[in-house]
Amino acid sequence: MQVAHNVSEFQDGEERILVLKDSSVLENEEEGDQLISIQLEEQNRLKKNLENKKKKPVYTGYDDEEFNFGGGVTKKSILSHYDEEIEGEKRHGFTLGNDGT
């Protein structure tokens, strides 16, 4: 059984409840069943949201990337602020054997 978290996220002697990850039929055929910890998923989502807030300051109207101070215009892709995560987040994990290790 595949676990969707790094081994380093688990402490020795610590108890974690793992549940089956929700997935579509097509995802399930590709990846197989995966176990996740709801608490770890929430912590990772919160950490990612905080990082995103730090990266993107509040819009002021003067910080448009396509305009230069010299009056020139640089070529930008359409909706360039969405170019950051095209491929998505890479997941790490490990496999549990029949004896639970």
Automatic annotation (TrEMBL):
<dbReference type="InterPro" id="IPR005011">
    <property type="entry name" value="SNU66/SART1"/>
</dbReference>
<dbReference type="Pfam" id="PF03343">
    <property type="entry name" value="SART-1"/>
</dbReference>
<dbReference type="GO" id="GO:0000481">
    <property type="term" value="P:maturation of 5S rRNA"/>
</dbReference>
<protein>
    <submittedName>
        <fullName>1370_t:CDS:1</fullName>
    </submittedName>
</protein>
<dbReference type="GO" id="GO:0045292">
    <property type="term" value="P:mRNA cis splicing, via spliceosome"/>
</dbReference>
<keyword id="KW-0539">Nucleus</keyword>
<dbReference type="GO" id="GO:0046540">
    <property type="term" value="C:U4/U6 x U5 tri-snRNP complex"/>
</dbReference>
<comment type="similarity">
    <text>Belongs to the SNU66/SART1 family.</text>
</comment>
